[in-house]
Amino acid sequence: VIRGEDNARVLLDLAGQRAQGIEVEACAHVVLRGFEVAGGDSSGIVVHNCHHCTIEGNVVNAFKAVGIRLRASNDNTVRGNICYHNDSGIYVGEGSTRNLIEANICAFGNQSSENADGIGSSDCEKNIYRFNVLIANNDDGLDMWTSKRNTIEWNFACANGDQQDGDGNGFKLGGKWRNRGPDDPWDGGEHIVRNNLSVWNQSTGFTDNSSSGNRYEGNVAFGDRNTGSYASVNHSPATAGEPIREKIRQRFQTLIEEGVMQPTIHRLPLAVGLIYELKIWPAADHEE
Question: How far, in Å, CA of 285 to CA of 267, rounded?
C-alpha cells in the first residue's frame, strides 16, 4: 500500500516538466491512495500491465494527456478519484478487461476539444463503469468508442461538449477507427446501459454512434440539445432523474465516510460538486 498520510495533503507537482506523474507497471495487488498529482506534459497516473491493483482517492489535475490511464491491465479497481483540467479524465485501453471504474469525478477535460472525454475507452471489453460523475468535458461524458460488452450503470453526465470540435454526448457507446479494415473486431457496442442520467449536454444524452447490440434499461435524459434520430434514449421529465441522483449521492457519501475520498484535504473547484444541484461533495469544503 502506497498512500498519503492521513489528514495531510501529499502533492506531486510537475508543473512545467515533461514528465509522467506516477506509473504502476507489471504489478499485482498494489494500492495507491491519497495523492494529488498536478501538471506535467504526459499522464498523471498510469497503470500498465497490472492486475488486481487499486487506484483510489487520488486527485489528478492539469495534465496535457490523460488523468488516469489503464494500459493492458485486467481486474483492477479505479475508485473515488478526482480528475479535472486534464485531457480525458480516465482512459481504459490496449485490451484492458474486467476492471471496475467506480465513483470517480471527471470534470473540465479541456486540454483538447476533439478527444477530451470524462471517461474514454478503446479496444477493451467487459469492464464496469458505475457511479461516475462526468461534468463539462470538451468532448463526451463517457465515450466507449471501440470498446465492447461493458456494463455502464448509475453514472451522471452533464454539460459536456464545447460547441466547436467536441461531440458533446453524455454517453457515446460505439465507433470505429477509419483507418482499420472491415474485419477489425473493435467497433464498439453490446453494452449493458442502465440507470444512467444524462442532462444538458451539447449533443445527445445517449447514442449508439453506429454500434449495435446495446441494451438500455432505466436511463434518464433531459435538456440535451440533440433529440433527433441520433439519440438512442428519449427525453424524460427532469423529476425522473432524482432516484439516480440519490443513488449516486449515497455511494459518494459512503466513500467519504470510509475515508477513501477526503473533502477536507482535496478541495474542488466550485462547479464540480454543486452543478445542477447534484451535491455529492460537502458544500463547506468547496473553494473557488
Answer: 6
How far separated are the first and last CA of the chain, in Å rounded? 32
CB count within 10 Å of CB 150 equals: 27
Position 272 scores a pLDDT of 75
Q: What are the grid coordinates assigned to 244, written together?
A: 439516480
Over the stretch 174-210, which tens digit does the pLDDT of each residue have? Answer: 887 777 777 776 778 999 999 999 999 999 999 999 8
What pLDDT shows up at residue 111? Answer: 67
The predicted-structure confidence for 122-136, as pLDDT tens digits, reads as follows 999 999 999 999 999
* Share of residues in the chain with pLDDT > 90 (%): 69
d(C-alpha 280, C-alpha 96), whole Å: 29
54: nearest Cα among 128, 1, 133: 1
CA angle 43, 48, 51 (to 5 degrees): 135
Q: State how far the Cα of 219 lies from the Cα of 215, in Å rounded to an integer.
A: 11
Q: What's the farthest any 2 CA atoms get from each other in the chain? A: 54
User: Residues 152, 241: contact at Cβ < 8 Å?
Assistant: no
Cell representation of residue 287 = 473553494
Per-residue cell: 91: 482512459
β 142-148/171-172 pair status: parallel
284 pLDDT higher than 80: no
Q: What pLDDT, in 10s, does the model give residues 24-63?
A: 999 999 999 999 999 888 899 999 999 999 999 999 999 9
Strands (E), 151-219: 151-153, 156-158, 171-172, 192-194, 197-199, 206-207, 215-217
Q: How far apart are CA 234 and CA 14, in angstroms?
A: 44
Q: How far apart are CA 92 and CA 100, in angstroms?
A: 11
How many CB atoms neighbour CB 122 within 10 A? 19
- The number of residues in the chain equals 288
Pairing of strands 54-56, 77-79: parallel
